[in-house]
Amino acid sequence: MDGSASTDRDFKAAIVIPVYNHEAAIGLTLARTMEYDYPVLLVDDGSSATCRDVLIQLERQYGDRVNLLRLKQNGGKGAAVKAGLRQLLKMGYTHAVQIDADGQHELADLPLFIATGQRFPDTLVTGYPQYDESVPVLRYYARYLTHVWVWINTLSFRIKDTMCGFRVYPLAQVVQLLDQEPCGNRMDFDPEVIVRWAWRGLPIESLPTRVNYPIDGVSHFNAVKDNILISLMHARLFFGMLARLPSIIGNRRHG
Questions:
Q1: Torsion of CA 87, 96, 189, 49, to 10 degrees
Q2: 220 or 200: whose pLDDT is higher?
Q3: What digits encode the pLDDT tens for the residues 172-201?
């Protein structure tokens, strides 16, 4: 671990869950999350009326433990996460734990993720998915291809997985990054933000975590649109890496 260990700094974490038409899954995901007694911000990414009504009811059900941020239009997962991170910083939180609405993340690992973020408050903590034999081969190798590009664009193997949405973000640092650098608004957000974080020489910790398939079987990954956006992102990052080459090498020497 190359982060700064601390037990004295104030640590105030909340969970952010981007939601788009996961009305069948979000109730169970939220119930499991609430077992760990952390405040939750649901970000409605322009969902349908059905999902919107479910989210409003959940906010009422849990009282002040759950807040709902509603976006007028669907902007994509990345746009929803960005809005949630900015909102939590305004609310006075120091860290945000990002999880998906569809129940794919192993929430039994939540205490470990938060404890790691608390111990190393300047570190981006990210999940490193552990798959079983049921994972589709095409999905597995598509993710691996993205990892290869990230290793090229960071000149490092320290990021073990780039697409897992189970993360702990130090809010002040990540919001500053988002204000200063572009990051994708859809499924390209997760890999892009962690590359730009690495470019700044900021610490990253990967924790193994089991991945489940979505409770409701709904995936918002658009095979054409999102793959095009991810390909454009890799190209953008590659040329960005070339422009930053001296500073990237310098950060590695001093990291």
A1: -60
A2: 200
A3: 999 999 999 989 898 789 999 999 999 898
Q: In angstroms, rounded to a whole number, what is the distance separating the alpha carbons of residues 94 and 246? A: 31
- CA separation for the pair 127, 115 (Å, rounded): 14
Taking only the tens place, the pLDDT of each residue in 54-82 is 999 999 999 999 999 999 999 999 999 99
Q: What is the mean pLDDT of the chain?
A: 85
Amino acid at 175: V
Taking CA atoms, 186 is separated from 75, 141, 158, 249, in Å, by: 7, 20, 24, 29
Q: Which of 144, 103, 95 is nearest to 120 (CA)?
A: 95
What is the maximum alpha-carbon separation in the chain? Answer: 53
Beta strand extents in the chain (DSSP E only): 13-19, 40-45, 66-71, 95-98, 124-130, 167-170, 204-210
Average pLDDT over residues 206-210: 94
- Of the CA atoms within 13 Å of residue 53, those in its CB half-sphere come to 3
In what helix (H) or strand (E) does residue 245 lie, and over which residues does it extend?
Answer: helix 245-254
> Per-residue b/e over 184-220, b at no fewer than 16 CB within 10 Å?
bbbbbbbbbbbbbbbbeebbbbebebebeebbbeeeb
Query: Which CATH architecture describes the domain 13-254?
Result: Alpha-Beta Complex (3.90)
What type of residue is 161?
Answer: D
Distance CA 170, CA 119 (A): 12
The burial of 65, by beta-carbon neighbours within 10 Å (0-12 exposed, 13-18 middle, 19 or more buried), is given as: middle
Ordered by start, the domain boundaries in the chain are 13-254
Q: How far apart are CA 107 and CA 197, in angstroms?
A: 25
Percent of the chain with pLDDT over 90: 58
